[in-house]
Amino acid sequence: MEHQEFVFKLDPRGQPIEADVYFSPGTQEATSRPAAIMFHGGGFVIGAKERIPPQHIKMLIELGFIVVVPNYRLAPTISMYEGPFQDSKDAYTWCQTDLPKLLPTGLSVDSQRMVAIGYSAGATLALLLASMQTKPRAILDFYGPLNFSDKFWHSPLPSLADLPPFPPELLAKVFEEEDPSSVASSLERPSPDSNAAPKLDLSRPRNAWLFNAMKEGHHLRSVVGDGDYARVDPISFFSGEFPPTAFIHGNQDTLVEFRFSKDAYEALQKLGVETQLLEIEGKNHGFDAGIEEGMEGWDKIQAGLEFLANHV
After folding, report:
1. Could you tell me the domains of the chain?
2. How confident is the model at residue 200 (pLDDT cuts 50, 70, 90)?
3. What SS3 state is found at 262?
4. What is the pTM for the complete model shown?
5. Where does the record place the Alpha/beta hydrolase fold-3 domain (predicted)?
6. Are 54 and 131 in contact (CB under 8 A)?
């Protein structure tokens, strides 16, 4: 597996936003390959392209894909619509217009055969690509937030109730940053067999801000910023034309309740959209961290990735 890093856009300050492109070596005779774009999670506040599970990238390449993993600007110093959503759309467009000209000799991508994958907040971004004129051929959602009118997103999170108060001056330091597009933290499990809360360094302002916002119930309001939840809510774009979509979700998820994926699956079914629900028994948010081929739960991950391959 090889990879190259590209700049797919400059932000308004002229700062580069990068994407990693993974592929197996090509030949002059190689046929065009489909592309998979993958978005990391982190509540739209933390995370980076390096946090995508490498075993998922590896399997996608084995299934014949060229894999693109972009960064995106992070809230709360920029709104979800202006930062994560806009950057994810721009990365998707870049894959279609620019990437074919940048690949090594002998490697060809069919930019019309694209699929989207996301993890947690990144799954929201993957689903939102259904708002594009040229939609992904299929989408794979790992435990993604949606249905933002639900009171769950506007209420304190019980699983974080025992967190101690954070110093206001620590939380305020987040707003001294200028829209970073890469933060080396994530909401993954400490290990594949753990159901504990993610272990983050809460002395870091951005981590502390995110967990405090979720604890107090204003995380979504703060990252959306302008109160217009509908334009960043994937269910706003549900229709009979929505791409085939698979959902993978642990049924003991405390950060994004399993019912959100179940309800979305049922809603798409009623619209006549091809959809699949892969329920992971007894697992919490980010259950897939560190799960390798042959381990418990891998069969569901493999089924989700193969769902994508079956639509290109």
Report:
1. 2-151+183-198+227-309 (3.40.50.1820)
2. confident
3. helix
4. 0.94
5. 37-135
6. no
